[in-house]
Specification:
Elements lengths: L2 H11 L10 E4 L8 E4 L4 E10 L1 H9 L11 E5 L1 H5 L6 E6 L5 E8 L6 E6 L7 E7 L11 E8 L2 H11 L1 H7 L7 H4 L1 E6 L12 E3 L8 E4 L6 E2 L8 E5 L6 E7 L8 E5 L4 E6 L7
Parallel strand pairs: 3-9, 8-17, 10-17
Antiparallel strand pairs: 1-2, 3-6, 4-5, 4-7, 7-8, 10-14, 11-15, 12-13, 12-14, 15-16
């Protein structure tokens, strides 16, 4: 992808150019005069964490009497969602496989190649193609300068994708995609979880997009995943953004009526899902 296009996407998202361009900048500590200079062009970091089924997906499988799929040994990739969405051949920064405890560690991730955010995704035919954001420049205005540790990756079984597709409904999907998509994957989608400071789902939350023309694409699945409306989150805290089924789009999300939830960068593209957790403050619970 041409650098001018990437910079345009960064500008649309309102990201500080330090997150999109080259150069070295201080990583301030308690006293800025003692700040260490970090060479972002040559810095490489490690991303460590573990993967699990999205809690709501695990609950659905249990209710249907289906066994939860084993994630151990599955391949995992570290990638830049923005670059994946525009089919950039350099979007993947590293790969690994999940350990027996579903943990992973990927080293030598080049910081200079991160423009907006960093995500990790699992690859298996039983899972919907998706990735989970593990670092967002929205929090710092710059690319990461230290290792990303404790990253939580959420896997979306196809059964969960199918349930969300039914909840939204084929008629809605066709209308929002000009007839291009009958499923969420065909359209492209974002699955979001709104949680509180303890990581518990928040009911009654309304998601706010920085692009008002996209607001009609937000839906809130009900507790039983049998339907979805456009009112607010149910007790599961979930929301779904439905893409157009066409070219990638980028936008930012937050919550109505709360200054505790920082604006977050996100986007959507045909054939993929993105998982995003909205939490108060800048550190995941």
């Amino acid at each position: 992808m041409k650098s001018s296009s990437l910079l345009a996407c960064c500008a649309l998202l309102g990201v500080n150019l330090a997150a999109c361009g080259p150069g070295a900048m201080p990583d301030p500590g308690t006293r800025t005069e003692d700040a260490q200079i970090v060479d972002l062009d040559n810095l490489r970091i490690t991303v460590r964490g573990r993967a699990e089924l999205l809690p709501e997906a695990a609950r659905l499988l249990a209710e249907q009497g289906q066994p939860a799929p084993s994630l151990a040994g599955l391949p995992l990739v570290i990638e830049e969602p923005l670059r994946v969405e525009v089919n950039d051949a350099s979007a993947t920064f590293g790969a690994s496989t999940l350990a027996e405890d579903n943990g992973f560690s990927v080293s030598d991730v080049p910081v200079k190649d991160i423009h907006v955010s960093l995500a990790a995704g699992l690859q298996h035919e039983s899972l919907a193609p998706s990735s989970t954001i593990v670092f967002d420049t929205a929090f710092t205005g710059s690319r990461p300068r230290t290792d990303v540790v404790g990253a939580q990756i959420w896997a979306l079984p196809m059964a969960f994708h199918d349930a969300l597709t039914r909840a939204v409904g084929e008629e809605t999907l066709l209308a929002l995609t000009d007839g291009r998509a009958r499923t969420l994957l065909e359209a492209g989608f974002v699955v979001g979880r709104v949680v509180d400071a303890k990581g518990q789902p928040v009911a009654g939350a309304r998601v706010w997009l920085d692009r008002g023309e996209l607001a009609n694409r937000l839906y809130y699945p009900r507790e039983d995943l049998a339907s979805a409306d456009q009112e607010s989150t149910s007790s599961n805290g979930l929301f779904v953004y439905i893409h157009t089924g066409a070219d990638a789009e980028t936008f930012r999300v937050s919550l109505h009526g709360s200054e505790d939830y920082v604006w977050r960068n996100t986007g959507a593209a045909h054939g993929r899902g993105l998982v995003l957790t909205l939490f108060p403050g800048t550190e995941a619970p």
